[in-house]
Amino acid sequence: MSERVAVRKTYKLFIGGKFPRSESGRSYIVQDANVALSSRKDARDAVVAARAAVKGWAGATAYNRGQILYRVAEMLEGRREQFAALGVPGDEVDAAIDRWVWYAGWSDKLPQVYGGANPVAGPYFNLSAPEPTGVVAVVAPESPALLGLVSVIAPAIVTGNTVVAAASPSAPLAAVTLAEVLATSDLPGGVVNILTGRLAETVPTLASHMDVNAIDLTGVADADLAADLEVKAAENLKRVLRPAPADHDWSADPGITRMTTLLETKTVWHPKGV
Amino acid sequence: MTATATSARSDLSELGRSETALRTFLHGLPGVDQVGAEQRAAQLGTRSIKTTAKAQAIDLAIRMVDLTTLEGADTPGKVRALAAKALRPDPADPSCPHVGAVCVYPSMVPHVAEVLRGSGVHLASVATAFPSGQAPLEVKLADTRAAVEAGADEIDMVINRGAFLAGRYKEVYDEIVATKEACGDAHLKVILETGELATYDNVRRASWLAMLAGGDFVKTSTGKVPVAATPPVTLVMLEAVRDFRAATGRQVGVKPAGGIRTSKDAIKYLVMVNETVGPDWLDPDWFRFGASTLLNDLLMQRTKLKTGVYSGPDYFTLD
């Protein structure tokens, strides 16, 4: 019997639940693998997919979203070897799985912690409830490749936002493999979209895009680029999460700021009828 | 094609006199090469139109839009808002042209007429028991007259597909002639409802029938059946109007309607018009898009070209 022909893998983008190549047809090489080098137009397509997914995902019950995030943790658990083969340390995979579970638990608790009844001087019930802001662009930190990406995506989607994520340019293989996990986790197509390639090509498009509601600049290491992106984001008053410091400890308790920054508060006045 | 048209040139106007002559002529039209038409339409869709050409195409497409609302839930307020949008599609940009026409049900015509008066935007009304066309002729004609009296200057009629498919061409012909007469000065657009005609041969025959009977426009669809305007169907209709002008000297317009939602699609149609019938038809008087959601996409693309950043649906009115 002759030797098997090798099945060589191309690491593609993740847009709208599908794995397309870059519309530009370009790729670059990381760890001997071809990875799609996304363009401005891929970013545009990803925003369209993310916008289309907002209604269903924001409209799903908090309980259901929590279940789906937990399912992501389950699926990730079964892919340890694949991440190990890409050079992701075992304890980082553990931490990433734990992070999914941790955020999954927040789905139906955050509105209780962050919203509530306000005391007002009048015969009204006054209630504040947090709501998702919509489409969020996130820039994953350069490293850790897996834990860093999970730590920026999970807090955005758990509350009902949809995400266009720019993966770490130097370590995109873990990001695309995470996309394969997400694609098999009951997560509706378009809720998470992942772009690989140069940040300077895709992120300015996302920052200036009028149909993106918030941007998380965590992984933008270049201070000038970060300032420029904030200026672009100001055009339609996007919510902005500033870049993380280079020595940020990703294994520490993340707190709830990442979730709460990407929310809008709806306050309702309702007559008591006395 | 040309040979048939030339031989028929002398007596085209006589065809409507008898069922047999009409049938002989329509069935004498050469058949449409289905694979060829589909491939040609697909190939024309691959042209790349960028920068200044794209800006020009988008503005032209906006001027060609028949901004349409044909819902049971239409209210006077809703159609007035739509008419206001037709006049100033992008309130933030005075250089944005107005659309070609507003298209509504007959009962909504008076409400739109008061907004559009003197603006240059046409007012189209569907008539003749739209969308099925299954009503007695007197009812259809009364429907048409009522719309014209209320202020419509374009009438979108539906052909009697039941009669057409049963081969009663004379009946369809006579109905179009009668409707044209009821229209008076108003332009008559004839909706073929190509989604129900089944074959491209039928589309070609129905186009010729509508043109012979005096229609000023041939329109693909009502938008009420699953299959609406497709590029190959529009190609077949464009070829028909081209050949009809060659045979008779009279120019007839074309209006694809339904299913055209993006600027990209609209530009593909414009390319097809230019390549099939030439620049004579690249004008809102001779080519229209029946659409509602298309306009917002055109406006978003227009804004993108002007500002350099992608726009979003939040910045344009819902309709």
From TrEMBL, chain A:
Keywords: Oxidoreductase. The keyword Oxidoreductase applies. SUPFAM superfamilies: ALDH-like (SSF53720). Residues 33-240 form the Aldehyde dehydrogenase domain. It comes from the Bacteria. The keyword NAD does not apply. This is Aldehyde dehydrogenase. It comes from Micromonospora thermarum.
TrEMBL record, chain B:
InterPro entries: Aldolase_TIM, DeoC, DeoC/FbaB/LacD_aldolase. Keywords: Lyase, Schiff base. It catalyses: 2-deoxy-D-ribose 5-phosphate = D-glyceraldehyde 3-phosphate + acetaldehyde. Signal peptide: none annotated. Pathway: Carbohydrate degradation; 2-deoxy-D-ribose 1-phosphate degradation; D-glyceraldehyde 3-phosphate and acetaldehyde from 2-deoxy-alpha-D-ribose 1-phosphate: step 2/2. Gene3D superfamilies: Aldolase class I. It comes from Micromonospora thermarum. This is Deoxyribose-phosphate aldolase. Its EC number is 4.1.2.4. It comes from the Bacteria. GO terms for molecular function: deoxyribose-phosphate aldolase activity. The keyword Nuclease does not apply. Belongs to the DeoC/FbaB aldolase family. DeoC type 2 subfamily. CDD domains: DeoC (cd00959).
